[in-house]
Amino acid sequence: MVKCGNNGCGKEFEVGSQDECCFHPGSAVFHEGSKGWSCCKPRVLDFDDFLKIPGCATGSHKIAEPKPQSKPIVQSSTTNSDYASSSSTTTTTTTKPHPSDKFTPKPINNSGNDRSTPTLAQQFQKPPIEYVEENDADDAVISIGARCCRNGCSSGIYKDDESRKEQCNYHPGEPVFHEGSKGWSCCKPKAAIFEEFLKIKGCKHGKHRFVPPPKDNSVVECRHDWYQTFDSVLMTIYAKAVDKDNSKIQFLDNKTVSVDLKLAGDKMFKKVYNLAGTINTETSKFDVLKTKIEFKLIKDPQESWSRLEIEEQELYSYQV
After folding, report:
1. Distance (Å, rounded) from C-alpha 114 to C-alpha 89?
2. CHORD domain: from which residue to which, for each copy (predicted)?
3. I need a labelling partner for 145 at 20 to 30 A (CA). Which of 37, 199, 224, 257 fits?
4. How far is CA 20 from the centre of its chain?
């Protein structure tokens, strides 16, 4: 039994069988949150519902193309992980494997004595990012009645200098609203309604902060969308008038994409995407267009992703 490679099918079939295949001859279309196929009209919002859209054409099953074998690449020190080199041509030298060559996995030592070679989990593990609390300056001028500006704090009101020493229970992370649940990126409690979300007790203990940090008006937010196929994740960042010469996009490793865009009017967009799966940085690519940046992230291994990024609470380690 082999798996069908037609869009929207994915069923297993026997080679040579006359089983009818129901599939989508078009390509996936994701636009402003709606998801569907170019060959038919149904549109949905949820990705799981998108996968359930029945095929609009019938025909024969097609064997899914196997994952291409990795080939050694010799290239200059400037790689396609840097935006500045994405438009340049890189000379490559490849060695074509002989059909009789087979990959032989190395034996796994389960004795626990060999600690020289890191495990796969150790290779992909990122060190936790330490949270540093920022407080009001000693000479800060604070108005009587000023409220604490930390997330989740509802009791901090400035009366006198003693208010600076009071304990503040707050959330150092950001609010996370996903599929009806509401919570904070720094801790696990979630709520279904907004009123209960406001009551989630702060997970960090420190001091009140009555003077808000200065706001950087040059930093803007850019919306993104994504969908996946059998072998790749296609992500789009919507940004107009990108300054190609001064912007920088990098594949930092097989789980991290760094985006630093310079936009019109001295505006900028910065974000590090901590991907939920691993990619092949050699074959992944991106393209800067007039109104958006399109990424084609090649999965390695070719597994289904349940989300684009890992949750922030998996990245940060707070001392509570």
Report:
1. 42
2. 4-61, 149-208
3. 199
4. 37
**DSSP reduced 3-state for 279:** strand
pTM: 0.40
Distance CA 198, CA 264 (A): 37
Residues 6 or more apart whose Cβ sits within 8 Å of residue 24: 6, 7, 8, 37, 39, 40, 53, 55, 56, 57
One-letter amino acid identity for 211? V
For position 128, what pLDDT does the model report? 55
Domains of the chain, each with CATH number or no CATH: 2-60 (4.10.1130.20), 224-317 (2.60.40.790)
- What is the per-residue pLDDT for 60? 85
- Whether the CA torsion 171, 174, 175, 178 is positive or negative: it is negative
Query: From start to end of 41-111, where are the E strands?
Result: 43-44, 57-60
Which of 46-50, 73-77, 236-240, 241-245 has the least mean pLDDT? Answer: 73-77
Cα–Cα distance for residue pair 251/281, rounded to 1 Å:
6
Residues ≥6 apart with Cβ < 8 Å to 67: 231, 302
Positive or negative: CA dihedral 115, 116, 120, 122: positive
List the Cα angle 179/175/189 in 5-degree steps.
Answer: 75
- The pLDDT assigned to 17 comes to 77
Give the H/E segment covering residue 123: helix 120-124
pLDDT value at residue 106: 46
Please list the helix, strand and coil fractions of the chain in percent, rounded to the nearest 5, in that order: 10, 30, 60
Cα three-residue angle 110-114-115, rounded to 5 degrees: 115
Reported as type and span, the H/E element at residue 197 is: helix 194-198
The strand pairing partners of 234, in sequence order, are: 227, 296
